[in-house]
Amino acid sequence: MVKVAAVGYGAFGSFVLRSISKIPNVEIYGVSGVNPEKLKNFAQSMNIPNWTTDWQTLISDPEVNVVLVLTPPDSHHSIAVAAAKNKKHLFIEKPLALSLKQADEIISEVEKAGVKAVVDYIMRYHQLYYKLKNCIKENPDMGKIKKVWFYNFASSEGLNPDHWFWKEEKSGGILVEHGGHFYDLFSWLLEDTPKPVATFGHDPYEDMSIVHFPQIDAYGEFYHCFDKPGLLEKNFGGIAFEKGYITFEGWLPLSFKLEKIEEGQVITKEYKLKREKNEVFSELVQKAFQDLLKAIENPSHEITANLYIARKALEVSLKARSLKSSTR
């Protein structure tokens, strides 16, 4: 039985805990938070036997095998380093940290302790994105990739003005907290690390990042805003080739469309998952955690969303953010 302790249990944190609790031979052993009464109620609602407002006590408990870091980004570094020093394996919510120095310290402590760590870049585990990646390789007749894009028109409903997300010193800002997902996704899909060349937007709720993929010599646009009513949220992305397109909707899409020319005509192929979005979301969290479990059981197993992948995404995010600072 693998015993798990969670530091943090907010909206996404509780979703992670509920998802992981469904994995066989995994026990949610403990959870920590700030508000004692809310913490107690949450722990009891999930039948978690141990809860405390002192996360350091929780991660030093000899019964704990894995620590989930589910707090705002500004605390990822301190919790992850302390957990590694206590010989705990790690599941870390993205971004890995808020600076490359912090990221490097986490990597150093994890390697020194001989423990394993996965970062929650769940798009790398998405069945549909695997199919999309294969479609790129299987359709060379579409020619070179010319441009990629992802647009996220999101709602800020539920994020009050004092929420930690709006404070760059806590969240890293949109390009670090959210953008890292998409830099990492397209880096993986195209097997080419994007280089930020320009960033625009309005603080604190909007960013547009222009990047260049040097190996394939293509440009990409990543746009994120948080100013839409919830009912009008929309996100979509795509890849434009010389002779075709691949497009999808949703940050965790359930389908994508391929369009290209065959025998003088435009043909369209659509690939679909017959699943509910939340079901897929939960499954991806489980896959990331199961990837960690495989590495714990077999130290030679290479984790898909590992610390070096997360560091690279952070490096791109920080560069993109710095370009916005220089153009204000």
What does this structure look like?
This protein is an alpha/beta fold. It has 11 helices and 14 strands. It has helices spanning 11-20, 36-45, 55-59, 76-85, 100-113, 127-138, 168-171, 174-177, 179-190, 277-297, 307-326; strands spanning 2-7, 26-32, 50-52, 66-69, 89-92, 117-119, 145-154, 195-200, 206-213, 218-226, 234-241, 244-249, 255-262, 265-272. It has an 8-stranded mixed sheet. It has a 6-stranded parallel sheet with strand order 3-2-1-4-5-6, with helices on both faces. Helix 5 links the parallel strand 5 and strand 6 (117-119). Helix 1 crosses helix 10 (277-297). It starts with a strand and ends with a helix. The model has no long low-confidence stretch (mean pLDDT 95).
The fraction of residues assigned to DSSP E strands is: 25-35%
What does the radius of gyration come to? 20 Å
In angstroms, what separates the terminal alpha carbons?
52 Å
- The largest sheet has its strands arranged as 8-9-10-7-11-12-13-14
User: Runs with pLDDT <50, length 5+?
Assistant: none
Counting helices, strands and paired strands, the structural category is: alpha/beta
What general form does the structure show?
Answer: globular
| Helix proportion | 25-40%
Main β sheet profile: 8 strands, mixed
Number of helical stretches of at least 4 residues = 11
What's the overall average pLDDT, rounded? 95
DSSP E strands, number: 14
Compressed to H and E, one letter per element, the order equals EHEHEHEHEHEHEHHHEEEEEEEHH
